[in-house]
Amino acid sequence: xxxxxxxxxxxxxxxxxxxxxxxxxxxxxxxxxxxxxxxxxxxxxxxxxxxxxxxxxxxxxxxxxxxxxxxxxxxxxxxxxxxxxxxxxxxxxxxxxxxxxxxxxxxxxxxxxxxxxxxxxxxxxxxxxxxxxxxxxxxxxxxxxxxxxxxxxxxxxxxxxxxxxxxxxxxxxxxxxxxxxxxxxxxxxxxxxxxxxxxxxxxxxxxxxxxxxxxxxxxxxxxxxxxxxxxxxxxxxxxxxxxxxxxxxxxxxxxxxxxxxxxxxxxxxxxxxxxxxxxxxxxxxxxxxxxxxxxxxxxxxxxxxxxxxxxxxxxxxxxxxxxxxxxxxxxxxxxxxxxxxxxxxxxxxxxxxxxxxxxxxxxxxxxxxxxxxxxx
Length: 376
Description:
Radius of gyration: 24 Å
Number of strands: 17
Strand order of the largest sheet: 7-6-5-4-10-9-8
Shape: globular
Distance between the termini: 83 Å
Order of helices and strands: HEEHEHHHHEEEEEHEEHHEEEEEEEHH
Number of helices: 11
Structural class: alpha+beta
Largest sheet: 7 strands, antiparallel
């Protein structure tokens, strides 16, 4: 009898080796080392902690623990592929499926949506983000004073816009953000709130930021997926021949890189100033403060075929910088000079710029580049 637990654990390892069980059922992390005894899925340690927040639904156990025969039998009967077929059977194409690199909020709400709320077994439960219209109140950061105030937001696919109002009974919106250029990305650390969402849009071809949150995590993730749904339906009309696989990556995007660097002006004679930089696709924006509504300036980063290059270091004659790890971006019109505080930051920024420069430009990006060249 003493051998029985060892035998059970060997059987468990056999089950773990089946297709689908080699990655976390919830975030795709490789080699999951925990399991939910009640749901019959294998999960990574990070997701196992989120499962603990729904103990009435999921009871987790390390695969290193001692297992009895009935527990192994249960895991053998279910497994990740069978659970996916049950709990993810009706996930809309636009719904964001988080990975292990996403923030806790997205991962936790994905787990709750699947196993606690059964949102992907019953389509009617998806109405908060799939109806094409959503309104409610979010806490929005004030542009000038930095205070978060409650504001009414309306997302309307029919009008092709997300709007917000400064007063509850106001007839005219304070801002109209076209779905065509809308983006949303969770920024809990930057905003200082676990539910913090950064929404960007283009106005006169310049980027505008607004920062919002809601105290209810589900509410915030519903807003995020409602924006993705609106973008999905807009793109389906704009690109009628495109497949879901082609459209889904275009719904929302995380920034390629953010952080502080120093920069100097176009003549390279003035002192370097510390700025917050955001790399959003081909737009490199710089701000005085990470939570500014408007960028102080934007730089278009084209492709190597169009004579854009990134170099490590600064020209020998450069003066006025405080940080020693320089970067030079060469464009057809001028050189942009930046300096990073550490070598690691310099390396990461160069890698981000290189990824963009190595990618050929799409036809619509030439129009964006032309606009940047004609800016006053």
